[in-house]
Design brief:
- The protein has one domain: NAD(P)-binding Rossmann-like Domain (Rossmann fold, 3-Layer(aba) Sandwich), CATH 3.40.50.
- The chain is built from seven helices and seven strands.
- Helix 1 links the parallel strand 1 and strand 2.
- The protein starts with 10 loop residues before the first strand and ends in a 6-residue tail after the last strand.
Length: 256
């Protein structure tokens, strides 16, 4: 993992940081000098992420939160500011997938759960983050982790999930336009299949997925979580200072 000081002295908030892309992103920010607040619904995995950061002599805090619930996003942002004094970067990464079968057979509860976590959770997080960042002289940068499903492509059995991710992308790009004059930059990273449990089909092993990717993806493999994290850090950094409302697709060429 690349180390440096692009985020030295800054506070970064990462949701869904208990595993996968979120955990790798939190570690990457810490390696670049950020103080990291890791958030998610389960405290145990968050503490594991904090321990990994502290082992590398980074600084982090775990704040359990269910962002789909009213008031939780504001509480999370307040906790980050109380602990570290500012909120300079936010990564809205938390998301779930429910599906795998035809849309007509999707249980209504699965539809509502995906809407609550993937869309309402991001909406409330964006509101809370922007309300804080626009009060700071230095503003802030927000990156929402969406998906190549939705705006760019879709797949059988993923219609509802794709709909929520298309909404997340549109919501984030709209927020970018609304708040760039407040000093808040909002951008999107849209991953494709990545080396996490979410990209495994039922009963599939990592080796099975690798074989499937060799045949199905132009690149011949899925992305690593470190590659997604690198895209997130780039958009959050000063290197991307003129990028506003960008939707950066990192999907091994799947949407071509």
């Amino acid at each position: 993992m690349t180390t440096g000081n692009r985020f030295s002295g800054r506070t970064a908030l990462v949701t869904g940081a208990g595993s996968g892309i979120g955990r790798t992103t939190a570690l990457a920010f810490a390696a670049e000098g950020a103080r990291v607040v890791v958030a998610g619904r389960r405290e145990g995995p968050l503490k594991e992420t904090v321990a990994l950061i502290e082992e590398r002599r980074g600084e982090a805090a775990a704040v359990p939160a269910d962002l789909a619930r009213p008031g939780e996003a504001m509480r999370l942002v307040a906790a980050a500011v109380d602990r570290f004094g500012s909120l300079d970067v936010a990564v809205n990464n938390a998301g779930i997938f429910r599906g795998g079968g035809p849309l007509a057979d999707l249980p209504e509860a699965d539809w509502h759960e995906q809407l609550a976590v993937n869309v309402t959770g991001v909406h409330l997080a964006l509101q809370a983050e922007i309300r804080r960042m626009r009060t700071q002289p230095t503003g802030g940068a927000i990156v929402t982790v969406s998906s190549n499903f939705g705006v760019h492509t879709t797949s059988a059995g993923a219609a509802a999930y794709a709909a929520t991710k298309a909404a997340v992308t549109a919501l984030s790009r709209g927020a970018a336009l609304d708040h760039i004059k407040d000093g808040v930059r909002v951008n999107v990273v849209s991953p494709g299949a990545t080396a996490t449990s979410m990209s495994l089909r039922a009963g599939e092993t990592d080796a099975d997925r690798a074989e499937r990717a060799r045949a199905a993806l132009p690149l011949g493999r899925v992305s690593t979580t470190a590659e997604i994290a690198a895209a997130v850090l780039y958009l959050a950094s000063d290197d991307a200072a003129s990028m506003v409302g960008t939707d950066l697709v990192v999907d091994s060429g799947a949407s071509l």
